[in-house]
Amino acid sequence: MSILSFITKSRVWRSFFRHGWPNNPLDRSLVMTTNVFFHLHPVKVNLKSLRAAYSFGLGILTVVTFLSLVATGTMLMFNYVPSVERAYPDIVNLQNLVPFGQLFRNLHRWGAHLMVLTCVLHMARVFYTGAYKPPREFNWVVGVVLLILTLGGSFTGYLLPWDQLAYWAITVGTSIASYEPVAGVVIKKILLGGPEVGQASLTRFYGLHIMVIPALLVLLISLHLWRVRKDGGLAANDLDQPAEGARS
Ligand code: HEM
């Protein structure tokens, strides 16, 4: 028995991989269906939906950017305390003293801009390919909530450096929100935790930025990708299907 077959037949290996080498249709299907990450993909896909120029991979790019933001944001959290006394000096130290601090800060900042850009371009692509039409209208609505959360992540992150730019940007931003009819004043109060930007606002923005918004993004991105599968893959697949016929 060769070493390779000894390893692949061992109990340890079989407990991880419950299928044979993927050189036949059954094992190829099992590779996808028995892996929590792969099973997001269908076992078979239409060649048309794989054309790079169809989606430009903008949805996936948004996912990857989000994951990079989680990674770089976690690194920043190790060196940041969300208090009005500590926040600004922590950021200055991060820029000047912490090894790779400036790199991680810039990756996080540029990543945030990139995620907004790819998300908006992805929405435009979905619109121009008509992929918002039934049966994908629910996923379009999930997408709109994802866009709002993405913008919310940028907005709440803006206050955290606690410099003049942050302070006045959030003062202006929340003042604009207060002009929203009916609930405007309440929204401003909830966001700031008081009449003006202060410690309560910093605590709330931090909580929203590092916990609430990322958790909702993870939840809704999972729902969004699951719906892509349930709606029959990308809309490009429909070119080979009868016109009507909404699927489950
Ligand atoms: C955090 C933001 C978002 C992420 C991570 C995301 C991710 C994805 C991914 C990975 C796909 C598979 C196809 C592709 O890569 O283009 C997809 C498809 C789709 N997305 Fe998004 N998306 C986001 C925001 C949006 C927004 C803002 C909209 C619209 C308002 C939207 C509507 C859709 C629809 C309708 C589809 C199915 C497209 C088709 O069948 O061709 N998504 N999304």
Estimate percent helicity. 55-70%
Beginning-to-end CA distance, first to last residue = 48 Å
Q: What is the CATH architecture annotation? A: Up-down Bundle
Task: Label the structural class.
Answer: mainly alpha
Ligand inventory: protoporphyrin IX containing FE
Mean pLDDT reading: 92
Give the structure's gist in a few sentences.
By secondary structure, the chain is an all-alpha fold.
Structure description:
- With 248 residues, this protein is mainly alpha-helical.
- The protein has a single domain (50-228), classed as Cytochrome Bc1 Complex, Chain C, CATH 1.20.810.10.
- Helices cover 66% and strands 0% of the residues.
- It has helices at residues 3-9, 11-16, 25-33, 52-55, 58-77, 87-96, 101-128, 137-159, 164-178, 184-192, 199-230.
- The radius of gyration is 23 Å and the shape is globular.
- Bound molecules: protoporphyrin IX containing FE (HEM).
- The site of protoporphyrin IX containing FE has 28 residues, from helix 5, helix 7, helix 8 and helix 11.
- Residues 55, 57-60, 62-63, 119, 122-123, 126, 129, 131-132, 136, 139-140, 143-144, 146-147, 150, 221, 224-225, 228, 234-235 line the site of protoporphyrin IX containing FE (HEM).
